[in-house]
Amino acid sequence: MRRVILAAAAMAAAAAAAAPSAHAQDWHKIDCAASKLSAEPAGECWQGPPNNGGYAGCLFEGFSIYSKVADKPSFARVALVTNEIGTSAYGTTPRCYVAEVKNVLNEIKNGDLLSRTRSSNWSDVKTVASARGALFDAPGRRCVGFFQNGPTYIGGYSYNLRGWVCRPTGQTVTDSDVQDWLKSIKVAGAGTIPQGSRSTR
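Request: output the structure for the sequence above.
Response:
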C-alpha cells in the first residue's frame, strides 16, 4: 500500500498556535538573523514550536515577522516543511509537504492576534497582487490580509504564507503595498526535491 504523508495535521497544529502574541507559551521571539522567514524592513521575529504533523519522519516549522514601519505596519507568517527526519525509515525520497488549504479566508484570519481577534468588516476573498486576499478593519487601521502558497512540492507545497498590510484608517492599502511586502519576503530552508528523486506515492 502506498503511504501518503500529508501536512494537514501540521497545518492544524500551526493554526492552533497561529498568533505568537496570543500564544507566548508556544511562540518565542528570536533574532531575525536566525529566522527562516525574512523581509524588509524587519522589526520583530518569532518562531513557533516545530512538529511532525502526526507523521514520523516529517518536520514542519513556523516563523513570523513584523515590520515596524509606522504608517504601513505589516506582518507575515510561514508554515514550511524542512528536511525530513528519520530518513532511514522512509528511504531518501521526500514524502512530506504542506497540503492545500480548504478555507483561504480562515487561514488569513488565523494569521496573528490582530487578524484573529481585533478585526472586523471582512470582505470576500479576491485576487490581491500575486496572492489571495481580503480587506478588513482593525483599531485605527484599514488592512488587507493575504494568503499565498509557495512552490509546488510533491503533492502540495514547500510552504504557505499568510499575513497582512495595514494603513491608518482613512487611507487605502493598494495592491502595490501588498506586492512590495510580498516581494521583500524570503523563505529559507523549505523542502526541495533532490535531483533525480521521485515520489513513490
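Residues 1-24, 192-201 have pLDDT under 50 and may be disordered.
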